[in-house]
Amino acid sequence: MSTGGGGKKFFFRRKVCTFCADKGVALDYKDYALLRRFTTDRGRIIPRRISGCCAKHQRALTNAIKMARAIALLPFQAAED
Amino acid sequence: MLRKYETLFIVRPDLPEEQMAKVKERATAAVTSQGGLEIAYQDWGKKKLAYPVKKVQKANYVYFRYLAGGEAVAELERVLKVHDDVLRFITVKLGDRIDPATFDMEEDRKGIFPFNIKPREPSAERPAEEGDEEGVEGAPRRSSGSRWGEDGPAENTSADEGMGDEN
Hints:
With 81 residues, chain A is mainly α. In chain A, 36% of the residues lie in helices and 0% in strands. Chain B is 23% helix and 32% strand.
């Protein structure tokens, strides 16, 4: 896909899903250090349009984060400092 | 044919050793009494909780992996729920239709890493970075530089192509 040239100001880089790119990384709710990279500092899940994850992996990621929250590995809501 | 399950639960941090042993005994007994087989029972150490649970800020994470049928899970969860020192638990099915006769427990145990922190050889492309992880007492630290840098998932975007001139 060319960006068309026609006066477009922004180039959109196709983001590559991190989990598709690196097959060695498995999504696991116990891996809170990994999951935390996909949450904001307030504890919210980073949306797909930002994280660049594919739908399949974003779904798995969301589930993993929610499971991690259930056993207090990740916050539902982080405190504001 | 059995199924493979894991249960991760958090226990009050201030328990004396014999109390912890009692928790273990109760949990394993619940599974074995229903015809289950213990694969691994590990204490992953104390970790600060992401939020207080029953006024507790810090708790012991305990990991239990076993082969069993569904009844064993029901029994184990009942036991954990009743136990006052167990704050939370989560059970996940890991495998289905496993024949205990051919199952290699030793091999399976090798795949268990506390909080998935694997001893990894440091990758050459990314320099070692000391992370901000508060860490787990008594658990190995994640080898730094193994995965992503601080900015995490967004970072592959800048590495490719090298053309295009957004500022």
